Amino acid sequence: xxxxxxxxxxxxxxxxxxxxxxxxxxxxxxxxxDEWIYTRTGxxxxxxxxxxAEAFDLLKQAAEQAIKNACVDKEDIDLIxxxxxxxxxxxxxxxCMVQALLGIxxxxxxxxxxxxxxxxxxxxxxxxxxxxxxxxxxxLLVTIDNCSRYVDWTDRRTSILxxxxxxxxxxxxxxxxxIMVIDIKANGHVGDYITMPALKGNCPFVDQTPTQQFxxxxxxxxxxxxxxxxxxxxxxxxxxxxxxxAEDVDYLVLHQANQRIIKAVQERLGYDDSKVISNxxxxxxxxxxxxxxxxxxxxxxxxxKTPSKAIVCGFGAGMCWGGGVINLRDGIFKPENIFQK
Length: 341
Ligand code: UT7
Known about the structure:
- The protein contains 10 helices and 13 strands.
- The chain has a single domain (1-341), classed as 3-Layer(aba) Sandwich (Peroxisomal Thiolase, Chain A, domain 1), CATH 3.40.47.10.
- By secondary structure, the chain is α/β, with parallel strands linked by helices.
- The strands form 4 sheets. The chain has a 5-stranded mixed β-sheet, sandwiched between helices. It has a 4-stranded mixed β-sheet with strand order 8-13-12-11, with helices on both faces.
- The N and C termini lie far apart (40 Å).
- The protein has helices at residues 23-26, 34-41, 52-70, 94-102, 119-132, 147-150, 219-239, 259-269, 280-283, 290-300; strands at 6-15, 19-22, 45-48, 79-83, 110-113, 138-145, 165-174, 179-186, 194-195, 216-217, 251-254, 308-316, 320-328.
- Residues 32, 36-37, 40-41, 117, 156-157, 160-161, 219-220, 222-223, 226, 257-258, 261, 285, 316 line the site of oxa(dethia)-CoA.
């Protein structure tokens, strides 16, 4: 009997803000240089949301694109998941905001997950489970991290890295699985590598030492952790264990954290530049959104052809990481749908 509860990735969308912050702009904030930042990270510039209103407008646009590309009716969405660790606001949740922004009338469930830069891959794992179990038929997954709001713009070790951006995907039940491999992992014992405290000092009955809510990162520790774990994770856990040869996959779409990490994975896979998708130079690290934006931009710019297969892998605070191999079906992203309201 033909199955009809397999996860098909039917549409994706993305949106990036228009305000550009270049490396040269940062030289006005602290001692740094375009050369230092570019050599260490591959980043030349990043984008930042000009306002909450712009962030929500872009969230709506990205979600609408994904729904349009997926050719589903918004009222057929039966679960909304938002991956966000640096939300524009905490309540209502980003997933409920999407529901309202899209004007979805049914009381479908909506919840947020907080796994930082692994947000897309964790979201895909959740979608896979909900679809395969028959609990949901059309899932809208959005990724939204307002990184510029939470980095300390006096800290040259972190504020050079991050940028804002939004991704969206629709995963629908069907008779073909577009998620060939999916895996998620965490190691909370090294949680202090990337931290962001909650606001403190508000309750008049206890300690009132105010705390700012900034993201801090032990850059070298994170770099070493990722450089040790991620390349073999992709070749051994994602590919070899699932009997997939690297040459049978068309593209590598890694979380965009540092061009040197992307290069290390590329070399381990033996891929030439045409198979490696990178947009870190003009967007920096957009956290949970980086993979979806890279896929969308890759298709728009003609660097990614469809149908094809891609290795995806996210990693970041937690420390959390996850990876998979997915099908990029024809029509998953149609450039003509960008920014249509
Ligand atoms: O998305 C989550 C995952 N995140 C990552 O994967 C990020 C991983 N980490 C990294 O990519 C790198 O650690 C960074 C790019 C963030 C930093 O590069 P690094 O080579 O690890 O630099 P560092 O922090 O060890 O600093 C080396 C030197 C220091 O000077 P001293 O103390 O040796 O005199 C820093 O003060 O470079 C200095 N420095 C800078 N100089 C100019 C640090 N940041 C800057 C800067 N401009 N922006």
